[in-house]
Amino acid sequence: MSNQPAEPLPPPKIETAPYSIPRSWKVGMTVASVMVFLALLGVGLTTTNRAIAPKYWMCLVPVFGLLCVIAAWYRAKQGEGGRVEIVRQIVHWLAIGAFLALDFYIRGTGEETGVAAGYNALLLLALGCFLAGVHLEWLFALVGLLLVGTLIVVVKADQYLWLVVVAAIAIVAAMFGAMRFMARRRSVTRP
Fold first, then answer.
1. Which candidate, 143, 147, 146, 83, places its Cα nearest to that of 121?
2. Which H or E run contains 25?
C-alpha cells in the first residue's frame, strides 16, 4: 500500500440516443399539436356552419384548459415545475371561462349578437393559449397566435381562410423543427 491517493473513478457514461428530445417537450408538443388540430377543426366549422362555430369555440376553453393542466402536471411530475404551476393553470383557465360566461351573459341582454360572442370566445381562447405559452410552455403561445390569425381571417377575409390552414401546418412544422434543433443542441453540449 502506498500513501498516494487513489485516482477517482471516471463518471459513468450515460448513453443517450442521438438528438434525444426531453419527455416534457414531447408532451408539450403533443398538447400543442392537439390544440392546433382542434383549432383547424374550428376553422372548418366556421367556414361550413357559422351557427355552430361559436358553441365550438366556447367548448374549446375547458378542453384547452384541461390540456394545459395536464401539461403542467406532467412537468411537475418530471421535476420541471411544481404544484404552483398546476394551480396557476387551473386559475388561469377558470378565469378565461368566467370572462367567457360574462360575455354570454352580456349577449343574453341583446347587446351582442351570437356571431360576435363566438368571435369573443375565439379571442379569449387565443389570449388564454398565448398566456399559457408565456407561463407554461412556449409552444402554446404559437397556438394562441394561430388562433388570433384565424380570428382576423374569419372576421376580415373569409375567402382567405385556407391561409390559416397553411399557417397551422407551418407552425406545426416550426415546432417540430425547434424541438429537433433543441435536441441537437442539447446533445452537442453534453460532455
1. 147
2. helix 23-48
Assess contact for 41 and 165: CB atoms under 8 A.
no
30 and 172 Cβ atoms separated by less than 8 Å: no
Inter-residue long-range contacts of 126-133, CB under 8 Å, 24+ positions, other chains counted: 126/150, 126/151, 127/96, 128/61, 128/64, 128/65, 128/92, 128/93, 128/96, 129/35, 129/64, 131/92, 132/64, 132/68, 132/89, 132/92, 132/93
Tens place of pLDDT per residue across the chain (191 aa): 556 666 665 555 544 444 444 555 677 788 888 888 887 787 777 667 767 777 787 788 889 889 989 888 888 888 877 788 888 889 988 888 888 888 777 777 776 666 676 777 788 888 888 888 888 878 788 888 888 887 887 777 666 666 767 777 787 778 778 777 777 776 666 55
What is the distance between the alpha carbons of residues 136 and 28, in angstroms, rounded to a whole number?
9
Give the integer Cα–Cα distance in Å for 36 and 42.
Answer: 10
Cβ density class 139-164: b for 16+ within 10 Å, e for less: bbbbbbbbbbbbbebbeeeeeeeeeb
Torsion of the alpha carbons at 82, 125, 179 and 153, rounded to the nearest 10: -170
d(CA 58, CA 122): 8
Q: Whole-model pTM above 0.85? A: no
